[in-house]
Write a structure and sequence with these properties.
By secondary structure, the protein is an alpha+beta fold. It folds into three domains: about 35-90 and about 95-130; about 135-235, GOLD domain (Jelly Rolls), CATH 2.60.120.680; about 255-440. The protein has eight helices and 19 strands. Strand 6 (about 160-180) and strand 7 form a beta hairpin. The termini are far apart.
């Protein structure tokens, strides 16, 4: 009986051991090595190590692809990418690994190290800017700006740089990107919102051009990212306005004026006093001024004196106007808005005031009709009955300059009368036509 009981106990014990062993084997299945083939090499990793390896490899592959996108200018979220790469870690237990498995895991760790070094270089090139983008210029400092004419932003970029531009407007606008050195348009847009980038293939001066249709509120942001390994320094772009022909690259047409000299020399004549005129000479005179084609105004210079001796400034009215006009030039070009034309003419005339003869004066009448002018000269009709331009006529004028709008007249007649002076008046009259024209200029770009 005793032997029987012992046998039963042994059997039970063996059964328990057997069951326990089976249970332990099943619980250890989680750590059972998985085998994968890498080429002709068999890699054996536990399930936990395999999951860690695969999840890390996915993160590394994603980071590598994102860095490539940053280098190609396809993404600007560089700060977060660099931060995520710095956090990448991969630790493995090589105690039970064969040499092939150990090399397999080490290769992943080396990829992470190379990835961090690559990200570090990109971060250094980006400078202190946390986005990795170096802003070089803003047309409106991030705020909407009302523009009514073409705006151009020049910048020098090196090969490998990425140009970024975001331009928004309340009206449809045209946006052009140019290689200014080659005078070639690279991109064109017609929209209210433009958000794009351009990879720079050649070192050159580039232009971002915004052209509104009428007036538009435009908000612009232009920036660039340095090419890999490139210096953060960029040469400053210098600009110079130069005259050009219509159709030249960047030609801008502006309203301007040109002077047309009407008299080769001053018209000089004498007006006798009324009493003396009854015996000899005349107290009235007409000076006919032919209006040059296209002239909008006639500018005249009148000098009155009791002496018939000329002075040095006589005959210099046309030259003096030209000199003053060049001095008033904007950016070395005679440009102005049409609404400012009268102001510009006033400035030109003010710069050429004749010497005043305080003791000499006469009446000045402006006629636009030949028959009226003849009647004035003949003296057979009272002046009060003549049709003269009251706005530009002056009684008792002294030496002066003046401007008369042509208003479509082909000839303007200036009538002069010595009504109250007892002495003879000596007059010198010069006249210049102001012809409105379109002149073209362009901007010449260079780097220091």
């Amino acid at each position: 009986m005793m032997n029987c009981k012992l046998s039963i106990a042994v059997v039970v014990a063996i059964a328990l051991v057997s069951c326990g062993g089976e249970s332990r084997t099943k619980s250890e299945d989680v750590e059972v090595a998985d085998e994968v083939n890498v080429g002709d090499t068999v890699i054996s990793l536990s399930e936990r190590e395999m999951l860690l390896y695969e999840s890390t490899a996915v993160k590394v592959a994603d980071a590598e692809a994102t860095l490539e996108a940053i280098e190609a200018g396809e993404t600007t979220n560089a700060a977060k990418v660099f931060s995520d790469i710095r956090k990448l870690q991969y630790h493995y237990n090589d105690a039970s690994m064969n040499s092939a498995t150990r090399e397999h895991c080490e290769a992943l760790a080396e990829r992470i190290a190379a990835l961090k070094e690559r990200a570090k270089m990109l971060s250094v090139n980006a400078g202190s800017n946390p986005t990795g983008i170096k802003t070089v210029s803003r047309l409106s400092s991030g705020k909407a700006q009302l523009i009514s004419e073409c705006e151009r932003q020049p910048l020098y970029l090196e090969a490998g740089d990425m140009l970024f531009y975001t331009i928004e407007s309340d009206e449809s606008i045209a946006v052009n990107i140019y290689n200014a050195d080659k005078q070639t348009r690279l991109k064109h847009y017609a929209s209210t919102s433009v958000n794009d980038s351009l990879k720079i293939d050649y070192s050159a001066i580039y232009l971002v051009e915004v052209i509104p249709q009428g007036k538009a509120y435009v908000k612009s942001n232009i920036s660039f990212r340095n090419g890999v390994g490139a210096s953060t320094y960029r040469s400053k772009v210098m600009t110079e306005q130069v005259a050009c022909k219509k159709g030249d690259f960047g030609a801008m047409g502006v309203e301007a004026i040109k002077m047309s000299n009407i008299f080769e020399e001053p018209r000089k004549f004498t007006l006798r006093g009324q009493i003396k005129a009854a015996f000899s000479g005349a107290a009235r005179a007409i000076v006919a001024i032919p209006v040059p084609a296209g002239a909008s105004n006639i500018l005249y210079s009148l000098r009155i004196s009791t002496s018939e001796q000329p002075i040095n400034s006589d005959g210099e009215f046309y030259e003096n106007l030209g000199h003053s006009y060049r001095r008033i030039d904007v950016l070395s070009l005679p440009v102005y808005e049409s609404t400012r034309r009268s102001g510009l003419i006033d400035m030109l005339l003010d710069d050429n005031r004749p010497i005043r003869e305080e003791d000499a004066y006469c009446n000045l009448y402006v006629f636009r009709n030949q028959s009226e002018a003849k009647s004035f000269q003949d003296g057979d009709v009272a002046i009060s009955n003549l049709n003269y331009d009251v706005t530009y006529s002056t009684l008792g004028t002294q030496s002066c300059n003046g401007s008369i709008p042509t208003n479509g007249s082909k000839t303007i007649y200036l009538g002069f009368e010595n009504e109250r002076m007892r002495y003879a008046n000596y007059l010198w009259v010069e006249a210049v036509g102001v012809v409105t024209t379109t002149e073209y200029y362009t901007t010449k770009y260079s780097i220091q």
